[in-house]
Sequence to fold (307 residues):
Amino acid sequence: MFLFVVDSAMGQPHPPMTIAFASDVSGDWEIYLTDTAGKRPINLTHNPAADYYPTWSPDGTQIAFFSRRDGNHEIYVMQADGTNQQRLTHHPATDKAPAWSPDGTRLAFTSNRGGHFDIYLLHLNNDEVEHLTENPFEDEAPAWSPDGNRLVFHSKRELNWDIYVVNVDSGVEQRLTDQPLMDTYPAWSPDGSRIVYASMHAEAALADFDLYIMDAIDGGNKQVLTDTPTDEAVPAWAPDGDTIAFQFEEDGRWVIHVMRADGSERHELINNGAWAAQPKWSNSRSDVLLVVPSALQIQQWGKIRAP
Fold:
């Protein structure tokens, strides 16, 4: 039996934390499970269609994702060991990028079922779909505030990708970034005070994506966390609030890195000779996450690095 231990620190000698991510190392995109100690990743989905963008339920028992397995992108859910995979949305449009609400009752996601990409809410108790944002330009990649009252997302509504926040009850929106190049893939810190995101700045020596952090209340106090000649993107905050995982461009493909929330102690976690992206931490507050190997498929990997 494989044992994944969840703790409030990044790496050794502390117990490792669990991460789900997407990779095409098997020849098509699948959802995998690993931990910060570099445990050999386990294929959870093993489906011939593409599976992307895992998001954990608050109790760590389920993972939602989106997949093309029924001919177009739909939202699916499975147990954390990969069993009981079920389709949640049923629409001919594209449904993608799910994000589980902190109370476990809703999934926010992106869909173009209205003719352009907006943010929607799927109510898990009755399968009702609520149209949250409505804009002629794209709204994508929602992420919840820890209190469940707001969603942060990126939008092209001013003909440039910027970061916005919307109140899920009132629909009131707030713009947090406004600069000439792109700001994308925001993620809220567990204490609700900060947002990390990927940003491209013209004043940088190379206009690539780096990771930035800002105050969640108004987008103030923006600070750069990474400064490399290639892209960092899709950051995800660990439950400890001190650790961030993200995808990093290396040799023309994505690999996965981990660092402290201040940008220090950065290291490579997954480099498998293929693409590895979209890391998401387990939100479970329990001590262990048990994975039953009979339900899973282990792949061959290249470099898997612990701290």
